[in-house]
Write a structure and sequence with these properties.
Strand content: 35-45%
Number of strands: 5
Distance between the termini: 24 Å
Shape: globular
Oligomer: single chain
Largest sheet: 5 strands, antiparallel
Order of helices and strands: EEEEEH
Number of helices: 1
């Protein structure tokens, strides 16, 4: 089960997700120092994902269809691999 920690909106980023045909929108991803990411769509929390030091998703608690979860996981992983600031080092 995911641990509860503070998410920092200062370091948030956005992903463009295709929810269904003609419904593509941006969702906010809020990281914390523990490698967790809170997923927010238009003010609603869709869930939380946790990543390890190797940018692998090790836990997820999301109530979204599999095709949306796969897009979110890939987007966060791409962000981690291409980011100059690793979320685990955020202060």
């Amino acid at each position: 089960m995911l641990r509860t920690t503070v998410f920092n909106p200062r370091y948030q980023f956005h992903l463009l997700i295709n929810f269904k045909q003609k419904d593509e929108r941006s969702i906010a991803i809020l990281p914390n120092r523990s490698g967790q990411f809170r997923v927010v769509d238009q003010g609603d929390i869709l869930g939380e994902l946790e990543y390890d030091q190797h940018c692998n998703c090790i836990a997820s608690r999301c109530n979204v269809p599999k095709h949306i979860l796969a897009q979110i996981k890939n987007g966060i992983r791409d962000f981690l691999l291409n980011s100059f600031i690793h979320p685990l080092s955020l202060t």
